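Two entries, shown back to back:
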Amino acid sequence: MITRTSSTAPAEAVVPRPRRPVTAAFRALVALAAVIGIVIDLVIGSPLRVLSYFTIQSNVLLAVVFAFSALRAWRGQRPLPGLLTGGTLLFILITGLVYHFVLADDSSGFAMTDDVERLSGWHSLSNHLLHTVTPIGALLDWLLLTRPGGLRLHHAAQWMLYPLAYLAFALTRGAIMPPGSPARYPYPFLDVEAHGYAGVLANAVFFGLAFYALALLLVGLDRIRPGLRGRGARGPSLENRISSPAAGPLK
């Protein structure tokens, strides 16, 4: 008696994921832009001071995550978890939005326009790379090259742990530094000398709620934005337009 055995392996185990060289190249360029901006700032300024800024920390995270994402896209491997990639997107968007709408805006009440206007040469280049190029690059990658549906509602609360930890770090650092130290507090809205702890706490609550709203917005948009939906989705997907219909997730 002859028996037949049927394979129960999932389709993804049978059909290999396609390599995505365009996606890999784009992510590598975004990571490179972050690295160049960070290196310029480290060479020009004091490394300990430079590394204390949220801008630098968020760009370090972006450089690492995008470098690994580029490698995985090149090899056709599974994408990194949405918790990590979504958090990276949120933090770099915070960097860009706070800079352009708060720190570089005279009407915000926390503007650093005098410092911005004094930037020139290499420092000006790093400023544009870290505050404009990388946030736009990360947003374009999410909109055009990342598969929708990877973000979950509980991710939004988890992402808030980093801004909260940064607040604790900035205030602790400022408390142990002597008064009058340059860049004792990295950002004007965290300056205890100018606003007192009550004022800084009020600022932190305002910005924290804004960041959480942005996180929720990203999760909501991730549910409805067009793009690759996987098997059974209605209409052509982005991946099907650049590879075969049997290809795996774009990311």
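entry 2 starts here
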Amino acid sequence: MPVINRIAAFAEDMTAWRRHLHQHPELGQQCHETAAFVMDRLREFGVDEIHEGVAVSGVIAIINGQGDGPTIGLRADMDALPIRETTGADWASKNTGKMHACGHDGHTTMLLGAARYLAETRNFKGRVALIFQPAEEVGGGAELMVQEGVLDRFDIRALYALHSAPGTPLGQFYTTPGPLMAAVDTFHVDITGVGGHAAYPHETVDPIPAALSIAQAMATIVSRNHNPLDDLVVSVTMVHAGTADNVVPDTAYVGGTVRTYDKGVQAMVMRRMEEIVAGQAASFGVQGVLRYEVGYPPTINDPDATEFAVSVAREIAGDSGVDANATPEMGAEDFAFFQEKRPGAYLFVGNGDTAGLHQPDYDFDDNAAPYGASFFARVAERALPLNTQ
């Protein structure tokens, strides 16, 4: 079964919604205008409950089915990125320095499309909780929602989410049971020496050699300290020091990201970073302080929920249009906080031949929206079937 006919019939409406959202991107928890637009559409559709202000600007809507049954959650993220858009599209961002470069405008649109269909048909028992979440990119909006008790408050038994996938054929799906995306941590190293005139380096304690040595030593954690069969990324992405060519600075900074799946590997990285910073700082006579920030946990798909979600995706895209054993990725996703508490499955849906995510020329392909909306709608109908006693 391909895209649901009723959803295909209002595809132009979804395009209009998506392009409106694309023009008005918001960051982090401050997705108030986006939430207002979402709630206006939900009221038009006739959903049964709307709960606003969740995790600051999130929205949870409830659609009741025909008869009693459990509640499942369908989630879309709403926030954008601090990027200056270069698409030149007629619907390009009107908020300078902000843009939907990760497809969250498309995710929100797909869930709105499913909401419209489900509110019209109600071909299911129980309840569907539509979760429109802020702060996926920064701030962990999913964690805030969990902390606010939304899973217990709405008795959500399982959750499902989608992400657009540039480079994957339009409307095809991929996922895998178990680990799908990595945990993401951030490290900061502050190095303090004694600055002075660059013509008299012997009168200074130069923090720059220490910074460079620390950055190089960080790279050896992957090559020499961990089992090569375990997934691990350590990336130094920032080295900052100095403001003039004739001045030795007082301070330097090294920062970057760590991606892991295993808590033991994560603990090893933290230990080695402490040792590297302390040892290199001592050898250069500077002070070095490591700040290690644990971020999103790994995205771990529940095997049963994933098997079910894959079966639904195959209804939309056919057997050949679904990769159920995709290679795990080292990106991160805060949907993981939901999955720590409830069974859940996270899938990618093909966005065709577009620019990559987090790029200033990326734009969600509106032709993908009916596929995602159909997936969400069928998940509800298959998870909460009417023909059960």
